[in-house]
Write a sequence for this structure.
C-alpha cells in the first residue's frame, strides 16, 4: 500500500504529512492502562569486556565526566547533566546493552509503567532505590520487542558543569541525545512506541510503503530513540550532543592525533534525516557511539512528519557520501533482565543496504534521474572495499 498520496513533496526532496503515515498489519495491542509519562532518554548501561580500555575511550578521549566509579562500574555524565549519570560502563563477560533507561515525570508513573507492561504480558520487575547508584525506585521491563527498558523518577542531583569552562575540551559532549534500536518489523515497533506516547518525527520508506527506519520523540527534539530495520533486538547506537559542528571536527582531529582514527566508522557529515551534523565511533567493544549536533525543535502538536524516500541518496548523508556496510549490519546485543543475551529475530522486509548500495542497489540524487554517476555506484559495495 502506498502512502505517498497523503504526503507533499518539499523543495528539499523529502515528503511531509501531518500524521505518521505508517500502518502495521500485526500490531501489539494497545493496553487500556495509560502509558507512563516519559520525559526523555536518560542513560544507557553498557556491558564492556575491558573496563580500563572503555574508561580510556569515554573519559580520556571523549571527555565524559566521572560521577562515581569502582572496580566493577563507571558512572559517567555529560556537561549539562544534573542527574547522576547518562552512561554506565559495567565490566562483564559479553559486550551488550543491559538497559535503555528513561526518566518519567513523577513517582506515580512507575505504577503506570507496571500496569502498562503487565497488561501486555511482559516481564516486569520493580527495583528498589540503590539497585543502580544514584537512581531511586525503578521499574525494569522486557518490552514486547525484546528490549530491556528502565523507568525511574527519583535521582541524585549532581553539579551541572556548563560553567566549568576550565574543564571543557574542544570536543565537549554536552547532553545525552538519543538511543537507536534495531528491530525486524519497524511499523510494529512504531505502533508500539506510539502507544507508549512517542511521536514520529521522520521516517524512511519506499513508494510501496515499506518502512526502513523511524525516528520518535518525547522531548522536543527529533528523537529520544529511533527504530532501524534489521535483525533484532539489538542496539545500533547511543548518541551524545555537542554544541557546535566544530566540536565534532575536534574529536576527529584528536582521534587522528592519538593514532586512533580506526575508531571512526562513518562521517563526519550532515544527515538528511534530522538535519543533524554527525560522527559515528566504535568503542573498544564495538559499541557504536554517535556524536550529534544541531537538529531542530519538534515540540508543537502539529509538527510535520518528514518521510524520506529510501532511494534518495541524501537521506542518510546530505552530501551524498556513502554509508559503510558495517553501519547497516553491525549492532550490539541486548540483555534480558537476567543478564542473558536476547535471541535475534531476522528482518523479513527488504534491507535498506540491499536496496541502496552496490550494483544491485539503486539511489538517486535528483528525483527522476537514472541514479548515481558510474564512479559512485560501486562505492562500498560489499566485498569491494579498498
Ligand atoms: Fe543517531
Amino acid at each position: 500500500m502506498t502512502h505517498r498520496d497523503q504526503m507533499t513533496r518539499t523543495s528539499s526532496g523529502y515528503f511531509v504529512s501531518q500524521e505518521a503515515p505508517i500502518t502495521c498489519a500485526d500490531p501489539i495491542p494497545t493496553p487500556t492502562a495509560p502509558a507512563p509519562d516519559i520525559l526523555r532518554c536518560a542513560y544507557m548501561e553498557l556491558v564492556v569486556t575491558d573496563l580500563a580500555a572503555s574508561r580510556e575511550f569515554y573519559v580520556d578521549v571523549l571527555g565524559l565526566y566521572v560521577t562515581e566509579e569502582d572496580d566493577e562500574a563507571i558512572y559517567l555524565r555529560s556537561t549539562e547533566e544534573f542527574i547522576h549519570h547518562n552512561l554506565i560502563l559495567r565490566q562483564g563477560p559479553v559486550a551488550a546493552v543491559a538497559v535503555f533507561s528513561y526518566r518519567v515525570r513523577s513517582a506515580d508513573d512507575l505504577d503506570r509503567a507496571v500496569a502498562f507492561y503487565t497488561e501486555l504480558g511482559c516481564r516486569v520487575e520493580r527495583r528498589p532505590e540503590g539497585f543502580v547508584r544514584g537512581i531511586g525506585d525503578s521499574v525494569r521491563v522486557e518490552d514486547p520487542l525484546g528490549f530491556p527498558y528502565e523507568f525511574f523518577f527519583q535521582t541524585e542531583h549532581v553539579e551541572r558543569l556548563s560553567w566549568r569552562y576550565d574543564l571543557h575540551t574542544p570536543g565537549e559532549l554536552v547532553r545525552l541525545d538519543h538511543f537507536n534500536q534495531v528491530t525486524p518489523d519497524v511499523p510494529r515497533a512504531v505502533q508500539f512506541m506510539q502507544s507508549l506516547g512517542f511521536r514520529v518525527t521522520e521516517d524512511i520508506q519506499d513508494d510501496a510503503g515499506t518502512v526502513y527506519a523511524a525516528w520518535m520523540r518525547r522531548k522536543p527534539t527529533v528523537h529520544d530513540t529511533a527504530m532501524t530495520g534489521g535483525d533484532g533486538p539489538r542496539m545500533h547506537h547511543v548518541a551524545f550532543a555537542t554544541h557546535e559542528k566544530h566540536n565534532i571536527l575536534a574529536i576527529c582531529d584528536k582521534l587522528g592525533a592519538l593514532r586512533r582514527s580506526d575508531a571512526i566508522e562513518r562521517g563526519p557529515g550532515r544527515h538528511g534525516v534530522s538535519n543533524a551534523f554527525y560522527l559515528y565511533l566504535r568503542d573498544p567493544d564495538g559499541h557504536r557511539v554517535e556524536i550529534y549536533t544541531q537538529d531542530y525543535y519538534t515540540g508543537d502538536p502539529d509538527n510535520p512528519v518528514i518521510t524520506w524516500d529510501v532511494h534518495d541518496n541524501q537521506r542518510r548523508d546530505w552530501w551524498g557520501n556513502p554509508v559503510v556496510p558495517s553501519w547497516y549490519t553491525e549492532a550490539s546485543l541486548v540483555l534480558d533482565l537476567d543478564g542473558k543475551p536476547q535471541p535475534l529475530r531476522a528482518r523479513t522486509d527488504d534491507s535498506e543496504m540491499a536496496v541502496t548500495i552496490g550494483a544491485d542497489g539503486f539511489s538517486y540524487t535528483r528525483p527522476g534521474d537514472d541514479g548515481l554517476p558510474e564512479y559512485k555506484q560501486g562505492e562500498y559495495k560489499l566485498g569491494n572495499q579498498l
The chain is about 15% helix and 30% strand. Residues 22 and 187 are 6 Å apart (CA to CA).
